[in-house]
Amino acid sequence: MAKRLDVGLGERSYPIWIGTGLGPDLLQRIRGRQVVIVSQAPLARHLTKLLAYLGDAPKSVHCHSLPDGEGAKNLQELERLIGCLIEAGLGRDGLLLALGGGVVGDITGFAAACFQRGMDFIQLPTTLLSQVDSAVGGKTAVNHPLGKNLIGAFHQPKAVYVDLDWLDTLPGNQLSAGLAEVIKYGVIEDAAFFAWLEANMTGLLARDKTLLAHAIERSLAIKARIVAADEREQGVRAHLNLGHTFGHAIEAHQGYGNWLHGEAVAAGMLMAAELAKARGMLEDGELSRLYRLTQAAGLPTKGPLDMEPEDYLPLMQRDKKVLAGKLRLVLPQGLGQAVVVSDALDTEILEAIRAVQANH
Ligand SMILES: NC(=O)c1ccc[n+]([C@@H]2O[C@H](COP(=O)([O-])OP(=O)(O)OC[C@H]3O[C@@H](n4cnc5c(N)ncnc54)[C@H](O)[C@@H]3O)[C@@H](O)[C@H]2O)c1
Ligand SMILES: [Zn+2]
Hints:
The protein is an alpha/beta fold. The protein contains 13 helices and 11 strands. The chain has 2 domains: 3-169, Rossmann fold, CATH 3.40.50; 173-358, Up-down Bundle (Dehydroquinate synthase-like, alpha domain).
């Protein structure tokens, strides 16, 4: 039985359906329309099932395959995708379906934002990370050789369908990477959810669907509320970046794709947590719980060993969360709350990274 959440954004509001199988109104939304499905090779099996499900409801269906991996999120692939839309004869009333992880969702959403100055798209997120995070919120982008997500737009999907069955084929390290973002929601917003994750991590890793459904629902309820309150990240939406400024430094240093985004965020959250502990915002016991939960989720509990603390600072400064030259960091305030600080000293940041790297 699918469960519905809503992202409340006035006339741009949209539903999120979570369950096994696709939510009840997908066929209604696509009926009689020209549809282009964007996907990647590892999703072939799910694409076949989706095509069978859509049947002859759409007026036409074209499939576009992106190369696999983060490398596909670039302007060349965007141009190729838009070429496909033109060849498919898509009008502004056409519809894009993004079947895949965050890479497919981000580039498809951006194509939908740009093509003919904006058209509808639907997110069909197939990684845990995209199901709990990237498919909701309307941030769309491609990368520039000089930086990640630098070319993008806010463009909300018309609906999001999370089918738990898609997770059956997801590699284990990708599942863990998604759990990093799930843990993040507990840290920034919900102490009870954090405790629930501690009690259920083994079952989540075993892909118990009831547990996964609960984890996804809680995560998306938090994300939907934050996005509705602050769509353009003027305030509270920044809390979702907990661990990300450190994490982006790791991703940039290691070369995108070598450390998964969620893995880098996991190590980054520990660095933010060490900094918070040093400032008296987080207790020893709370910090230990975060280390234990991170480890239990199969995530790294330190940054890359070939990266010196000093390597982080210039890369963190380059992150787009820097405002007027000031590095803005999200720090946990106890478990279940977060604050943004813009007065963190380089020495504090280095100490926090050293503390994580020294931890056993
Ligand atoms: N827009 C946002 O708000 C937002 C938020 C977080 C992350 N992101 C972006 O998301 C991207 C990362 O997304 P991701 O972690 O989903 O990675 P991804 O899209 O690269 O997917 C990871 C890998 O898993 C494969 N895959 C996907 N679903 C599968 C399935 N069900 N079975 C088997 N294989 C499957 C993919 O083909 C790929 O090889 C990054 O580019 C990041 O910048 C965007
Ligand atoms: Zn993230």
